[in-house]
Structure formats: structure tokens, C-alpha cells
Write a structure and sequence with these properties.
Elements (H helix, E strand, L loop, with lengths): L1 E4 L4 H12 L5 E5 L17 E4 L3 H8 L5 E4 L11 H22 L3 E6 L25 H15 L7 E6 L1 E3 L12 H12 L2 E4 L12 E2 L1 E3 H14 L4 E5 L5 E2 H12 L5 E4 L3 H4 L11 H4 L10 H13 L6
Parallel strand pairs: 1-2, 1-4, 2-3, 4-5, 5-6, 6-11, 7-10, 8-13
Antiparallel strand pairs: 9-12
């Protein structure tokens, strides 16, 4: 059995499809399945069973002899949520529990960290584990991910193979349920279809012009290819960046969405909401040498190719991966 937590969500459901495509069907999907909004993400996919998030640790203990690999992708990911107790319970303590079970029973583990751990980038974006204690995330979500990374590195006992992946700005099919947290590409597509224009945030930073805030946008198909690679690699444990390695502007992103739709470019700028203005990252870019040093063989999608595939093959067709 292969475990995927967060299996009804964005990246998790795409990983289920990837595993199906590679001939893996004995999959255990873990999530909070009462959220009907996400059900379409695993419709038509092959798997053994579904396990509710709250009972999964107990289930894992009871069924550990059948488990070959654990992908722990489930988390509370809302960067606008400021109730730290929620993140302590769902992100930090829950992941510690899964880690300890994997240690006890010799199970390999890949878990989702986040580029939100880097904060404003004061200490750069290198996945150098010695710098992790220095990082200053901008919100409780980023804190919860960084706190677990620090905890994992401090443990004397670890799974025989483990990897924490700092996901940068992932976009692609199956993210429709994420609301405000969905990618700018998703929102651009829907705004263009509705109004013929896209509103981007103004810059409130003197070093960046409007729309030239930069992010490392990574296509979800690249993310799941890396996850699949690590399932077979199973050595060189540690914490790794997972981005494209190339920062691009929001203007690039929106412009390519218009082009993929064959629509004239019409971009307006609006003030960044005040509740996130002082916590806003103006630049992120993953250093990818560490992951590539493992022998990962594939080139990543360019922003142009990723947006075109997403818009033409999924958003325009109301299709799922």
C-alpha cells in the first residue's frame, strides 16, 4: 500500500493520478472527506480505501505491515488564518505523530513543507539545513511548516528515508476548491472569462513596479514527478526546495494566461489588501541544485508551457487531472 494524505486536495489528487498512470492502484487516500467540494478530485481514480484524517494515525499503526510508502501532503494551508492552535494541531503535532509512527515501523516518509518558511527571503532561498533555524516566516502557516522542519532535523531517530519538500507556488489542475488560496493563473482565467480583464496587486515596495512582483511558479506535473522519483530513490534524506528554479513576474503569468485563451491583454492594478500587505513576499526563487544532485533527470516546465497546458487542457475543458 502507498499512503497519500491530503489525497482529495490539489497536489495529493494529482499524485494519485500519477501513481495510477504508473500502475499503482493499492493506494490509501487520507483526507477530511466530508468536504464534498473536493470530491471531483478523486472521482474515476483507482484506490484501495479511504481513511478519515482524524483516525489515520491509529489506522497506520494497525496496518503498518501492509504499507510501503507514506506521502504526507495534507495540511492546513491558509496563509490568512491566524489561529495558531489550528496549525499546531493539524500541521505540527499531526505531522510529528506520523513521523514517529514511521520511525517505529520503518516506513519511508515524504512530507510537504513550504516556501512560506523563507519569509521575506532575508536569509535567501537556499535549502541549506543549517539556515533553517534562522528563517522568519510571515504567518502562522509558515511558522508551522518551519517549526516542523526544525523539529525533524533535531530528532535522533528518523525514518530510514525521509524528505521534506519546500513547495513554492504550485499551480495546475485540481486546485479549483482552494478559493482565495488558488493560483493566480486560476483566478486570472476566471476573471478573463467573466470580465475580459485581470486585476493584479499594485506594488507597495519601491524596488518593484506594479505587476513585477516575482514568484517561483512550479507546475503541479513537475511536483508529482519529483514525488514519484523520491518514492523510488529512497536515499539522501533531508529537506529540499521544490520550485521551478526560475522567478517570474505576475505580469508574465497573467499575460501568458491571456495568450493561452487567445484574448487581448487587459490588466488593471488594485491595492494589495491591507490584511496581507505587510506580510507580502515580493520575490521568491528556489535554488534547485540540491534536488538535482540526487539525479533527478527531468527539465521543469517553463511558465509559458505550463500555463498553456493548464489553460487549454484543463481550465478551458473544465477537466481534472
Amino acid at each position: 500500500m502507498i499512503i497519500i494524505t491530503g489525497a482529495a486536495g490539489f497536489i495529493g489528487s494529482c499524485l494519485v493520478q500519477k501513481l495510477n498512470d504508473e500502475g499503482f492502484y493499492d493506494l490509501v487516500l487520507v483526507d477530511h472527506f466530508s468536504n464534498d467540494q473536493k470530491n471531483k478530485n478523486f472521482e474515476g481514480k483507482r484506490f484501495s480505501q479511504q481513511v478519515e484524517r482524524d483516525i489515520f494515525p491509529e489506522w497506520l499503526r494497525e496496518n503498518q505491515l501492509l504499507v510501503q510508502f507514506v506521502f504526507h501532503l495534507g495540511a492546513r494551508t491558509d496563509t490568512t488564518e491566524f489561529d495558531r492552535d489550528i496549525f499546531d494541531r493539524l500541521n505540527l503535532d499531526y505531522t510529528k505523530n506520523i513521523w514517529n509512527i514511521c520511525v517505529e515501523f520503518g516506513l519511508p516518509l515524504v512530507y510537504a513543507s513550504s516556501a512560506a518558511t523563507y519569509g521575506l527571503g532575508e536569509n535567501g532561498y537556499e535549502d541549506d539545513e543549517s539556515k533553517i533555524p534562522l528563517l522568519q516566516p510571515l504567518n502562522p502557516y509558515g511558522d508551522s511548516k518551519n517549526d516542523f522542519d526544525k523539529w525533524a532535523l533535531a530528532q535522533e531517530r528518523a525514518p530510514y528515508f525521509w524528505a521534506g519538500l519546500k513547495f513554492f507556488n504550485v499551480y495546475g489542475p485540481n486546485e479549483y476548491h482552494k478559493g482565495r488560496m488558488a493560483s493566480v493563473i486560476f483566478h486570472t482565467y476566471n476573471q478573463i472569462k467573466k470580465t475580459g480583464e485581470m486585476k493584479l496587486f499594485q506594488s507597495h515596495h519601491p524596488d518593484f513596479r506594479d505587476g513585477e512582483q516575482m514568484r517561483d511558479f512550479v507546475y503541479v506535473k513537475d511536483v508529482i514527478d519529483v514525488l514519484y522519483f523520491l518514492m523510488h530513490h529512497r536515499k539522501d534524506s533531508g529537506i529540499y526546495n521544490l520550485g521551478s528554479g526560475k522567478a517570474r513576474t505576475f505580469l508574465d503569468l497573467a499575460t501568458n494566461t491571456f495568450k493561452a485563451l487567445g484574448e487581448p491583454i487587459n490588466i488593471q492594478f488594485v491595492p494589495t489588501p491591507e490584511d496581507i500587505r505587510d506580510k507580502y513576499q515580493y520575490f521568491t526563487e528556489a535554488t534547485m541544485e540540491k534536488l538535482k544532485s540526487l539525479g533527478y533527470p527531468k527539465d521543469f516546465y517553463t511558465l509559458e508551457d505550463g500555463v498553456e497546458d493548464y489553460v487549454k487542457n484543463y481550465l478551458s475543458k473544465n477537466a481534472y487531472f
